[in-house]
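2024-03-11 09:14:02 DEBUG pipeline.ingest accepted 1 chain
2024-03-11 09:14:02 DEBUG pipeline.ingest length=121
2024-03-11 09:14:03 DEBUG pipeline.predict start
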Amino acid sequence: MKIRALLIVTLLAGCNQQPQEDPMIVLAKQAIEDRAKDPQSVQYKDVRVVDISTPLGIAQGVCGEFNAKNSMGGYVGFERFAWEPGDGRLIVPSAYPESNRHIIEKGLDRYCIEGKLPQGD
């Protein structure tokens, strides 16, 4: 009887543990929060590790969307991002001039959806 109770308590304790988040995702989120006006306000959705075809083989990056508060305290809306672990580069369209954002969006599509590097083949 004591063994069964111990087993049940052990199983229940294991149910309360949250799954570990991929370390690459943790680093990507940290990069976003480092540039946010209110880091605790950042919300995420569809954040995932992606495989990218490179001339040297398969590499990985992180893609998703985030929403954060601006300096007025209001949320600005979800925005796509990509993060490259090799150089820690964070790609966010709003960080670029308006005239270049369509190019950045196409690059995000290529990187996050097609799994290819944005520059050439």
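2024-03-11 09:14:41 DEBUG pipeline.report The two ends are 65 Å apart (CA to CA).
2024-03-11 09:14:41 DEBUG pipeline.predict end
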